[in-house]
Amino acid sequence: MSEALIVLDSSAEKSLQQQIREKLIQGILSGSIPAGHKMPSSRRMAEQLGVARNTVVLAYQQLVDDGFMVTRERSGFYVSETVSQQGLISHSAGGPQRDEDDRNYWRSHCNPVSVSRRALQARPANWLQYPYPFVSNEYDPRLYPGAEWRECTRDIFTAREVAQWATLGNNEDDRHLVEQICTRLLPRRGIYVDPGQILLTSGMEQACYLLGELLLGSQRKLALVHPAAGETGEIFRRTGAQILPLTQDADGPQLDDNLKAADCIYLQPNVHNPTAVTSSLERRRRLLKQAREQQAVIIENDCDHDFCYHGNPLPPLKSMEGGSPVIYLYQFPKVIDPGMQLAFMVAPKPVIQRLRALRYTQRERVPTLNQRLLAKFVAAGHLDAALFKITQQLKERWIALGEALMYHLPKLKVRRASCGTACWLELPEHMDGTQLQISAERNGLLLEPVSDGSAVRLGFSAIDADRIEGGVRVLAQLINGELQAEEETLDIASGRRLSAKELQSEMPGAIFLGTNTLGESYRIELKPDGTMLGYSRNDVEMDETDTGRWWLDGDQWVRQWRTWSYGRRASFHVVTDGHRIKWFNETGKLIDAAIIANE
Predict the structure, then answer these.
(1) At residue 540, does pLDDT exceed 50?
(2) How many angstroms separate the CA atoms of 38 and 52, rounded?
(3) Bridge partners, 580 (sequence order)
(4) Out of 73-82, 295-304, 523-532, 552-561, which region has the weakest mean confidence (pLDDT)?
């Protein structure tokens, strides 16, 4: 029984011992391995799983230490009887729940939400394994300062440290982190404030929500540049405020009638997302002057201030003369704290007091553990060192992207700010950005179109510098119509049709990434022993997995899933074209195409 529950993945990051332990715990807690059940001997289990006996012995012993199993002298290992006495419910007695009935039940109780699947899943789940991931707001994991975080994590779990951060009140911010922000981060931007003028938030979204609740309402007007990326516009719109779109030129937001009629103005002067426009120094002065004249509040999002590749960044509005009506927002870069997404606001003390009260009503604040951990990270100098190192590597990619765009797409308008992690590419009038995104994804290239389809955003923080030109070359071919637009057939397919010998050589161990017709990203791994592992991800429904078998029949590749595709057998001719793989049925019709993954 227990052996059948365990399928080990030798390529996984977890050790075989850890995989065995977790699978057995899962079986015990679900009731698949009942209380009192006699476990197979370590020798038999090792033979069944194809691992060393010592690996099973260590896994068993750890389960004994954790209370999931017990040993009986001269008898072996047994599932602990106490597990069933702890209120854990076994589902073995009853039949499985019907998914469709459960889904209909909850549909009848939930209000409809008009959000497209594409909005919920802006990119494939395995985006990092694509050859050319030009995605924004994502980073190459190799840039992450993991060793430094591990050092700080050890430090904050001493008894003295725990006594400090674990006893903070429900609505307090860690004074050590606030002190680091006041003395180290803000002075570099020319901003000098007291600790009472700072409030920590769980990301930029919470900061905008709190400000919307405090400053806006049905009788207020908010001006912001369109197009606006992310959830910012939607968050402010939910307050009932009237949203006034602002136009901008190469120098930043224009002082038009909408700006002059606004009660609040939301700005990203350092680098606007998604258009990559940096407001000039003179335009910043004019914006501040206009805000003072009309008694408007400016909400300044100082995004990507840390990454500057040419000269020095311009001063934030908050640091300039006349910056008193500015509420300053900053979020620590995702590459520094991807799991925290911690942000803070700078405003006058009366405003911070009201914002703190609003935050308390939400019962949502940054966990005190995360606050102290980030304070240690900044105080130890790790933030400065990491930002310097990451900026140098991003600058290399920033240069490579600029050169590639100038060489392969010289006629298109490109906007590339000296800060930030993405650039803006305007498309020809006849081309739709959404359709280009679909075609690009089929060719292993991920990009992000804007809402009206007139431009795309190319991020460079997640792609190696030496792969940027190849990706831009593919993009140029798509834009210039050099890649095939009509549906391919086997007779005219570009690439290399694999023979039986080539299939036998190239299929074992291969990993494919793609997107199905429902917009779900999938990952398929072909094991050398003829088994298949499949994973499909959809942010609206649940993740799905399946297993199956694959084999060769002459010069055709054959596969049969356990449940996917109705569990039916299917045969394909296979064509590879660079990093793409294409499957054609027996009549020569193209059935699917995917990307050959980089592990």
Answers:
(1) no
(2) 21
(3) 577, 595
(4) 73-82
